[in-house]
Design goal:
mainly beta
C-alpha cells in the first residue's frame, strides 16, 4: 500500500477545513423521512449498505498485533498512562467504504433497538478491527439524536437551540473525513459538508480533539448525558489522523481493577497520538476493541460482556474490484 505523503496530508486537511468553513453557515436542511443518499456515482470498493467487507486473510495477520493486505493496514499498540492500561489501533485503508457500521439484530436496521454479543457482532461483520458505537438507542436521550448509517438517515431529532439534550455530533463524509459539530440544534445539520455527502453520523461525544488540539471545555458545556468528564472511567474514542488514516483509542477501567481515565486524560492521549480529530464514544462496559477474533481490551478475560446495539468497523476489501 502506498504511504500517505506529508504533502497529500497537508493539502487534504486544509481542503477539508476550508470546505467545512464554507458550509458552517449553510441554510438548515429539511431532512425528509426515510432519506438516503445515492452514491452510485462513486466507484467505492465496498457497497454503501448493510453488507460486510471481505473476510480477512489468515496470512494477513502477520503477528498478534498487526494485519496487512492490499487494502488495509492495522497495528495495535498498548501502553500505560495515568496508572491505567490503554490500547491504540492505527488503521490505514484504501477506500472510504472500508470504514463501516453494523447494527445488531436480524434486520441490521438502526431503526430497531436489538442487541447482540459484542464479539459475536464483530465476527459477523468480518471486521479486521471493530469498536463499539454510540449507543444510539439509549433511553436517556428521550429518542433524541442524529443517526446516519451507511448513507441512510435513521434519526433526526435534535432539541431546538437552548435545549437540554443537545450533544456533539460527528459526521463522516463520503471521502472518509471527520467533521465534529459542537451541540448542533434542530435544523442546523446541512445535507452536505463542503459539498460532500455524509456516510455516517454519530450522536454521543464530546469532541476531544479538533484541528490537532485537545478540547478543554468539558466542565463548561452541558451535554445530553452525564459524561462524568472529571471521573476516571473506561473510555473509547475514534480519531482521524490523516486522509484514510484513523486511530481508535480505549482504556481500561474499574471493572478491571484499574482507575480508568478522565475525558481530559483521553483527550491528552489522543492529542499525543497526533490525530486531527477525536470523538468520544460510548464507554464503560460497552468498550470494545476487537481484532483477530478477540476482544483486545479484555485484560482479565471476563466471560460476561455487555451486549451492543451497534459497532463501527474497518473492513478488508481484498479481492474486490471497484465497479
Amino acid at each position: 500500500m502506498k504511504k500517505i505523503t506529508a504533502v497529500l496530508l497537508t493539502i487534504m486537511l486544509l481542503t477539508a477545513g476550508a470546505a467545512f468553513a464554507e458550509d458552517a453557515a449553510a441554510p438548515a436542511y429539511d431532512w425528509p423521512e426515510g432519506f438516503s443518499y445515492d452514491f452510485s456515482d462513486r466507484a467505492y470498493l465496498l457497497p454503501i449498505n448493510a453488507e460486510t467487507g471481505s473476510k480477512p486473510l489468515d496470512a494477513g495477520f502477520t503477528s498478534s498485533t498487526t494485519y496487512e493486505d492490499s487494502t488495509i493496514q492495522v497495528t495495535i499498540t498498548s501502553g500505560r498512562e495515568y496508572n491505567c492500561d490503554y490500547w491504540v489501533a492505527d488503521i490505514v485503508i484504501s477506500d472510504p467504504s472500508q470504514l463501516r457500521t453494523m447494527a445488531a439484530g436480524k434486520e441490521r436496521n438502526f431503526a430497531f433497538s436489538s442487541t447482540e454479543d459484542a464479539v459475536g457482532l464483530a465476527k459477523k461483520s468480518k471486521a479486521v478491527v471493530a469498536i463499539n458505537g454510540d449507543y444510539y438507542t439509549d433511553s436517556a436521550r428521550g429518542g433524541r439524536g442524529f443517526v446516519i448509517r451507511q448513507g441512510a438517515l435513521y434519526l433526526n431529532k435534535l432539541d431546538p437551540a437552548g435545549g437540554s439534550k443537545l450533544m456533539d455530533i460527528l459526521l463522516i463524509d463520503e471521502d472518509g473525513n471527520f467533521h465534529g459539530l459542537h451541540r448542533p440544534a434542530s435544523g442546523e445539520i446541512p445535507q452536505t459538508i463542503g459539498g460532500k455527502r455524509i456516510l455516517n453520523a454519530f450522536a454521543f461525544g464530546p469532541i476531544l480533539v479538533e484541528d490537532g488540539k485537545r478540547v478543554t471545555d468539558y466542565a463548561g458545556s452541558e451535554r445530553w448525558v452525564e459524561m462524568k468528564h472529571g471521573d476516571p472511567m473506561q473510555r473509547m474514542c475514534i480519531c482521524q489522523a490523516g486522509p484514510l488514516h484513523y486511530k481508535v483509542i480505549c482504556c481500561s477501567g474499574k471493572s478491571y481493577g484499574q482507575p480508568g481515565m478522565t475525558l481530559d486524560d483521553l483527550a491528552r492521549l489522543a492529542e499525543a497520538e497526533g490525530v486531527q480529530t477525536a470523538y468520544n464514544l460510548d464507554g464503560g462496559d460497552s468498550t470494545l476493541l476487537y481484532f483477530n477474533g478477540n476482544r483486545v481490551n479484555n485484560s482479565e478475560k471476563r466471560s460476561s460482556l455487555r451486549q451492543l446495539h451497534d459497532i463501527i468497523y474497518f473492513a478488508s476489501a481484498e479481492g474486490v474490484t471497484a465497479p
